[in-house]
Amino acid sequence: MRLLTHNLLSSHVRGVGPRGFPLRLQATEVRIHPVEFNPDFIARMIPKVEWAALLEAADTLHLVEVPKEPIQGYEHNEEFLRKMHHVLLEVEVLEGTLQCPESGRLFPISRGIPNMLLSDEETET
Amino acid sequence: MPRVLAATSLLFKGIRASPLRSWWVAPGRRYSRELGGRRSSAGPGVRLSGLHLCSPKRSGCALRPALDELPQIRCTHNGYYTPSKDNVIFAGTERRHLGNQRLLAETDFSESLAGERACGSAVHRPSRLMGNVVQFFSNMAAPGIVMDSNHQSNYKLSKTEKKLLRKQIKARHTLLRHEGIETVSYATQSLIVANGGLGNQVSRNQLLPVLEKCGLVDALLMPPNKPYSCVRYTTVEESKKAYDTLNGREIVDDLGQKIILYLNFVEKAQWKELGLQALPPGLKVIEEIISSEDEKMLLESVNWTEDTDNQNFQKSLKHRRVKHFGYEFHYDNNNVDKDKPLPGGLPDICESILEKWLKAGFIKHKPDQLTINQYEPGHGIPAHIDTHSAFEDEIVSLSLGSEIVMDFKHPDGMTVPVMLPRRSLLVMTGESRYLWTHGITPRKFDTVQASKGHKSGIITSDVEDLTLNKRGIRTSFTFRKVRQTPCNCSYPLVCDSQMKEAPASFPESDKEALQLEQDYVHRVYEEIARHFSSTRHTPWPHIVEFLKALPSGSLVADIGCGNGKYLGINKELYMIGCDHSQNLVDICRERQYQAFVCDALAVPIRSGSCDACISIAVIHHFATAERRVAALQELVRLLRPGGKALIYVWAMEQEYNKKKSKYLRENRTSQGLKEEINNDTSVQELLVKQLPNVGNQDSAHSVSSINDFQDGGCNSRNVANSKLPIHTNRTSFHSQDLLVPWHLKENPGKDKRVEPFGPLGSRDPGPVFHRYYHVFCEGELEAACQTLSNISILQSYYDQGNWCVILQKV
C-alpha cells in the first residue's frame, strides 16, 4: 500500500463518516520500490492529496521531511516533485495496520494488501 | 527488405506434434537425404520421408543456434544441416510425409529467412505458409533399435529392415489419413495391428494367440469392417515385445491367405476414436484378475447360511442374496450409515487381494465397504447409480462363478451392454460411476457375441455374430470406499448431495440477500479465483477506451476489480482496485497493482476523492434492487463533482439487434479468450432436457431476443421465496435471478491439450460452483441510476451481452 493510496482510504465503520479519515498507520514492514518519475503526473496529484494526512503518515514511517504544504510554484520545482514522488509512490507498506481514528477499529495490512472488510455484525443495520 | 518477425524462440517438445500449422521455408535449393548412411540429393518437392531442412549459406542465420542445440543435428561446414545417422530429422511439411514423428523442436525464423520460400512443387503450397515456423521431428527408430532420441549408434539398416520400416511408416500414414488414428514413436501399452482386422478377414481366433505369445493381453479390440485391430497389453514391456517380434509377421487369414502384420504404438486416447461404441468413460474391465484357486476360495468363504437374526443376511428365492461388510448398506435410502461401521471390517482374504490390486495399479484407493451379491439365473438388479454421497469415485466389482452381461445406460438413452467375464474386475470411475446407470436384467440367458468367446468388452450389435449364453450362478464382490464429505462431482443433476443442497431461493430480506451473496458469490470467487483469473485476461475495448480518455493524473477506483485486469491499462492514471475476494486481490498484488479488500457497499475511500470509477460486472451480483442501488450510490459518493463512472452489468438479453453475444456464440471446444464470459459446461447442457424429477430446470435452447421484452421491462419470473434456477451455460437467460455454474479446473492454463485418457476413459472434470446473478433488462440499469439525485447519464449502451452506463456526478 503506497502512501498515495493511504491518503484515499477512510474508515467506513458505521456512523463514523468523515471522522474516519485519516486512518492511523502503523507499519511493521516497509519497502522502498523505485518508480519511474513523471513530474507531470506528480504535479497533477499534488492538489488531490490531503496534506495533513500525508504528513502524519510520512511521519509515522520516519520519512524524509515532507513540507508542511505544497510549495508555491511546485509544478516546476523538480526537487519538490521528486521528494513527493518518493513519498507518495515509492514507499510501500507491506505489513502493518490501519486504525479508524474514531472507533479504534483495526484493519490489517498484509502483503501490501489492506483488508477493509467489516464483519457481518459490524455491517448489520 | 523482409519484414522483421518476432524474435526466434526455440521450443523443445517431447510430445506428439499437433497438426502442423507451420510450413517449410527452405531457402536452399538442395536437399540431402541421409538414411542409413547413403547420400543422394534430390530437387525440391521430392516426396521423401527423409527430408531435412537446408538453411541458406549465410551468416547470422537465426536457425543455426537453434539447430546447434539439438543433439541430433550436426552442422556441416557448408551450412547444410544433416541429421545424425539414426535419427532423421524432418522439417515441418505435409503431414502425410511425416506420419507422426516426435516433435523435437520448433523455431521461428528471424528476418534472415523471412519471406523465403521453397520453390517448386508438390510439397509446397504457398497458401499454407504461415509464420515461417519450422518444426523438427524425429522419426521412429526401426524395430529392434532402442527408441531413444539420444541414441547415437551407427546402426545401419539392412535392406529388409528398411523395407519393413517403409511399410510400417506407410501403415502409419494410412491409419492417420483414413482413420484419423495417430500413432506415436514411443512405446505404450497399446498397439494398432494394421492388416490384422475383421475387415480384412483376420479373426480373433487367429490373431489373439499370436498376440498372447508376447505377453498378457489386457484387451483386443477388433472393430468390425476395419483392416486393423487394437491390442492393449498389461505392461509396456510386453507391448514392446510384441512390437519388436510381430512387426512384419506373417499370419494366415480366414481365407487361407498370407497376411503381414504391421504394428505401431498408439496413445490410450485412440481407443475412443476407433469409432466403436465406446465403453462408458471411466469404465474398464480387467480380465482374469484372480486365479481359479482364489475364485474358489472366495466363493467358499461366503457363509450364506447365517442366522436370520443377523442383519447382514437376506434370503429370498425371488431375489438375489446380499451380504455387507465394513458398513451396512441400507436399501431403503440406498446409503450407508457412516456413523455405524460394522465390526470386523472387510474379510482378511479380501484385504490381501485388495493390497495386491493396489500395488498392481488396478485400483487407486483402498475400499472400506464390501457388498457381496449372489445372482442365480433369473436374478438381476434394477438400473441405478450408486449414491454419490455414499461412496467415493472408484467402485470395483469382482465377478465370480459365472460371467454376466451388465447394461450401462446414459441419460441420453444410449445403452451399452458389457460382458463381465468370470474372474474379471469391473472398475467404474468418473462418468461411468456418477452418471451412467448400471443394472443386470433379470433373465436366464444373455445375448453375447459368438466370435469373441467370453472375452470382455461391448457386446456387438452385429446381429450375425450373436449367440445365447446360459447364465450360471454369479457372485459379485463389490468394493467401495465410503465418503465422509458431501459429493461435489461434476454431475450435479444426478447428485444427491448437490441436489439436496438447500436450494437457493430468491431473497426476501436484506439479511437473506447478504447470506445468498456470501454463499453464492463471495465464497465461490475465493475458491475459483485462480481459474477465474486465468479466463479474465482480455480487457474489453470500450472500457479501455473509457480509461484511456481520462485525463492524465486522474485518480480512478475500480470497485470490484477482480484480478486487476483494468488496473494497468492507462499508466497515466493512478488506479486503485478493490474486491471482496482476498484471493483475487492477491492476484492484483502479484501484478504490482494497488488493491485492497472491501465490500462494494461500504468502500473505504473518502467521498469526492475520485476523478472516475469503474464497476465492471459487479453490481449484478447483488441480490436485491436496494442493494444494487446502494452499490451505485457508493460509486457516486466516491466521485468528485464532474467525475465519471462506468458501469457494466450482465444483460438478460444475450441477443441484441439480431446479433448473438460472444457468450452465446462461443462453442465449448474453444479456449482462452473464449472462456472470457463463462466457462464451458460439459454434460450438464445435455442433461437438462433428459432427466425427469429435476425440479424447475431451465432447458433453454431458444434465444430470447430483444423483442421479447418490448412490453416494458422484463418479465421477472421471480416470486419471493421461489427457487433460483440453475442456468445452463451458453444459453440465453430465462430468469433474471439465477445461479450460473462454474466448472473449476484445478490447474488452469497448465496444460490446455487433452490430458491422457485412461484406457477407454475420460478425464473427470472438477467440482462445480454456482454463482448468483441478477441479470439486467434493457433500461433497468439506467432506471436504477436515475434514482440517484446527483447524477446525469452521459451514455447508455449495449456491449457484448452487457448493459452499460456512463454517468457523471453533477
From TrEMBL, chain A:
Pfam families (UniProt xref): Trm112p
Gene3D superfamilies noted in UniProt: 2.20.25.10
Coiled coil: none
SUPFAM superfamilies: Trm112p-like
Family: Belongs to the TRM112 family.
Name the record gives this protein: Multifunctional methyltransferase subunit TRM112-like protein
Automatic annotation (TrEMBL), chain B:
InterPro entries xrefs: AlkB-like (IPR027450), AlkB_hom8_N (IPR015095), AlkB_tRNA_MeTrf/Diox (IPR051422), ALKBH8_RRM (IPR034256), Methyltransf_11 (IPR013216), Nucleotide-bd_a/b_plait_sf (IPR012677), Oxoglu/Fe-dep_dioxygenase_dom (IPR005123), RBD_domain_sf (IPR035979)
The keyword RNA-binding is assigned to this record: yes
Keyword S-adenosyl-L-methionine on entry: yes
Family to which this protein belongs: Belongs to the alkB family.
Pfam families, A to Z: 2OG-FeII_Oxy_2, ALKBH8_N, Methyltransf_11, RRM_1
Gene3D superfamilies, alphabetized: 2.60.120.1520, 3.30.70.330, Vaccinia Virus protein VP39 (3.40.50.150)
Major enzyme class: transferase
Record's protein name: tRNA (carboxymethyluridine(34)-5-O)-methyltransferase
Catalytic activity: 5-(carboxymethyl)uridine(34) in tRNA + S-adenosyl-L-methionine = 5-(2-methoxy-2-oxoethyl)uridine(34) in tRNA + S-adenosyl-L-homocysteine
Start and end residues of each Fe2OG dioxygenase domain: 366-483
EC number in record: 2.1.1.229
Subcellular location: Cytoplasm; Nucleus
